[in-house]
Amino acid sequence: MDARIQIWNVLHDGEITVISEDGDTLTMFVSIPYLRRRLKPSGDSFVLTLTGVRHAECRDFSGSASSASSLRQELEIGSPEILKTESESMPVTVDTTMGQLILDFQSIWFALDTGQPIEYESIERVCEEYWTEWQARAEQARRGTSA
Asked: Which of 20, 43, 57, 79 lies at a C-alpha separation of 20 to 30 Å from 103?
């Protein structure tokens, strides 16, 4: 499992709200309050810092290279919501509500929006806990309405 790729499935439903670029480093805030509020201190976003960025572009739903724009340009239009990736290697293609985000980078670091570093495994754990609880509530609701 490559955390550089899997994080995009873990943070599905998260909105990319802010980015910062500095040379070959791309920092982005991903707002996903239902996961983030499970961690202390309180906040609503995770910060992903991609280093060794070789390529970063957005494409519309056609996926055509002729439709490519920068992530900064996309954020001027709206906040792309992460849907999923089916990528297994770099570059990673992330499906969003605004098209595809194509990223090729060397490494990734995670932090809370309050600045504290966090391991990928901790983010993955709170995600699994959330969806396990969500599924249990959904099943309980179905049993309650079918009775």
From this structure: 43
Q: What is the pLDDT of residues 86-124, one digit of tens each?
A: 999 999 999 999 999 999 999 999 999 999 999 999 999
For 71, the token pair is 């992530």
Cα–Cα dist 95/101, whole Å? 6
Measured CA to CA, the distance from residue 2 to residue 142 in angstroms comes to 36
Taking the alpha carbons at both ends of the chain, their separation in whole angstroms is 42
Distance CA 16, CA 101 (A): 11
CB proximity list for 18: less than 8 A, separation 6 or greater:
28, 29, 75
Judge whether 123 and 7 are in contact, CB under 8 Å. Answer: yes
